[in-house]
Specification:
CATH class of chain A: Mainly Alpha
Structural class of chain A: mainly alpha
Strand order of the largest sheet of chain A: 1-4
Order of helices and strands of chain A: EHHHHEEHHE
Order of helices and strands of chain B: HHHHHHHHHHHHHHHHH
CATH superfamily of chain A: Transmembrane di-heme cytochromes, Chain C
Distance between the termini of chain B: 105 Å
Shape of chain B: elongated
Radius of gyration of chain B: 29 Å
Largest sheet of chain B: none
Shape of chain A: elongated
Number of domains of chain A: 1
Helix content of chain A: 55-70%
Structural class of chain B: mainly alpha
Helix content of chain B: 40-55%
Distance between the termini of chain A: 9 Å
Number of helices of chain A: 6
Number of strands of chain B: 0
Largest interface: A-B, 35 and 39 residues
Number of helices of chain B: 17
Number of strands of chain A: 4
Oligomer: heterodimer
């Protein structure tokens, strides 16, 4: 019989879904700008620029809220992979995804109130939220204020390396999001984890 | 061409022919290269600059000069030396009788038209210009010099650096379109006077308009792509309702800018690094146009592999769960 535990506070759920919507909007408009072509039916360039800029600024504000709220609530600690045995626990988790799940084995490290994330989640979430997303936001802000960009870099226009970094880091975040949504189906039932992200209650 | 113009042209040709230097005095583009002629021109031009420059104005050689008139007739020798007409003698365009002061009246009417030297180009330019908004509104009041100051102007091919081309060419437009004084001077010649529209308001639809003005020329949107290959920069200036508003005309891999602003920049890029529109790399990052197909395919491949991998994983989960269920029952 399944049991329930309240794991996720309201602010975290609100941030998560705001972040998710903004990321999707930024991905669609960002792709429309980067792959702009008269032959492709994408979001019109001028409209995509406006939406991307507004959503980008909103993401920067949302991220600032995330960092402050994490510090104030102490939730930042959840993102820190805790030694010893981080690599071993990552391997156990990977093995579960690659093999154990097909055999109906139980989750090796189910979430608890104290430890929300398994080691693999902590490593990946930390990398995305504290490396990739800040890179996307900072390079995006340079795009917004191009005078911040150096005049020249590596013998090229200074904005070019910034733009490439923005593109690659943005793609990494969206690539993570695709996998993240799929992994969301790995609860007790395929919809359990999505429900948890709405209600805050985790089903064991 | 006036009789005086013909006479001047004839005199120029005869002067070069008689000296026997015509072959080595100019390069293929007609630029004076003979050191003796250059030195002669430099000395004679220095006499003109004796009055017609900032330095000459501050220390006029005579006390009886009309300083108000002179103020409007000053030129910068350094700018002239950086222009297309570097090395040329002032008198080639301005005529001969300047030795006495005051200069004889009506000399301005004797000024050589540009077509006197630039005959072939003038023919092609004129056809494009006739269709421009300037010709339609201002007719003969609008001449080559209205935009191209022959004492300063340098053609894009000789400048090469797109940022410098943009700064020079856009200055020609904003000299009138961002100046109420100069705009009203031309507007006064219209049947119904026009108040200068504000450039920021006109370009409100354009994201980062001011950034565009630093990186692209007004004419890159306000002229059609010329059908004449050798004259890709058209002189058919388009009014706002006909100007290019389709962003992907420049912001795509088939970017028009490559054949316009960046036409002469290709050789400036250090290396193309596999990018599309490599001539842009040295001076700007243009969204949609500056792309690296290798990187794009790498990222598209990563997404395709991830999505495919997840589908396969999901399918195995469903099948495995089904098998487990059957086994349990």
């Amino acid at each position: 019989m399944s049991s329930r535990e309240y794991l996720l506070p309201l602010w975290l759920r609100l941030w998560h879904w705001t972040n998710a919507v903004l990321m999707i909007v930024l991905a669609v408009t960002g792709a429309s700008l980067h792959f702009a072509d008269p032959e492709l039916k994408l979001v019109p360039f001028s409209l995509a620029t406006t939406i991307h800029e507004i959503a980008g600024i909103a993401l920067a504000v949302t991220y600032a809220f995330f960092v402050v709220a994490n510090i104030v609530s102490g939730n930042w600690w959840q993102y820190v992979p805790k030694p010893p045995g981080v690599l071993h626990r990552c391997w156990v988790q990977t093995r579960y995804y690659m093999w154990g799940i097909f055999r109906g084995e139980p989750h090796p490290y189910p979430p608890t109130k104290e430890v929300n994330f398994n080691a693999l989640q902590a490593v990946v979430y930390w990398t995305i939220m504290y490396v990739a997303v800040p890179v996307v936001i900072l390079t995006g802000l340079v795009f917004f204020y191009p005078t911040w960009a150096p005049e020249r870099m590596f013998g090229l226009d200074g904005l070019l390396p910034i733009a490439m970094l923005h593109y690659v880091a943005g793609a990494a975040v969206i690539l993570f999001m695709v996998a993240h949504i799929y992994l969301g189906t790995m609860g007790v039932r395929p919809t359990s984890l999505f429900r948890m992200m709405i209600t805050g209650w985790h089903e064991h | 061409m006036t009789i005086a113009g013909w006479a001047r042209s004839l005199a120029m040709v005869l002067a070069f022919a008689c000296a026997g230097v015509a072959a080595r005095a100019q390069d293929a583009k007609g630029v004076v290269t003979d050191p003796a002629i250059l030195e002669k021109n430099r000395k004679e031009n220095a006499e003109c600059y004796g009055c017609h420059s900032e330095a000459g104005y501050k220390n006029p050689p005579r006390a009886d000069m009309d300083m108000v008139k002179l103020r409007a007739l000053l030129h910068d020798p350094a700018k002239f030396d950086g222009s297309n007409h570097v090395g040329m003698n002032c008198k080639i365009c301005h005529g001969q009788p300047y030795e006495t002061y005051p200069h004889p009246a009506g000399l301005k009417q004797n000024l050589s038209p540009c077509s006197e030297c630039h005959a072939t180009k003038s023919l092609r330019v004129e056809k494009q210009f006739e269709d421009s908004v300037h010709a339609k509104n201002l007719k003969d009041a609008f001449t080559c010099q209205t935009c191209h100051d022959p004492h300063v102007y340098k053609v894009a091919q000789k400048i090469g650096d797109p940022r410098v081309i943009v700064a020079q060419d856009n200055q020609m437009c904003i000299d009138c379109h961002n100046s109420d004084l100069r705009y009203s001077k031309f507007s006064a010649q219209l049947s119904t006077q026009k108040v200068r529209p504000d450039l920021d308001t006109l370009h409100k639809w354009l994201p980062n308009a001011r950034l565009h003005w630093q990186a692209a020329r007004c004419i890159d949107c306000h002229t059609p792509v010329s059908k004449v290959k050798s004259l890709q920069t058209s002189h058919e200036i388009l009014a706002k309702d006909k100007a290019e508003k389709n962003c992907v005309a420049c912001h795509s891999q088939q970017s028009q800018l490559a054949a316009r602003l960046y036409r002469y920049a290709a050789t400036n890029a250090a290396a193309d690094l596999g990018f599309t529109n490599p001539s842009y790399l040295g001076s700007a990052y243009v969204i949609g146009a500056t792309r690296n197909p290798w990187l794009d395919w790498g990222i598209i491949g990563a997404f395709a592999a991830t999505i495919l991998g997840l589908f396969v994983h999901g399918a195995i989960r469903v099948v495995a769960a089904g098998l487990r269920g059957r086994r349990a029952s």
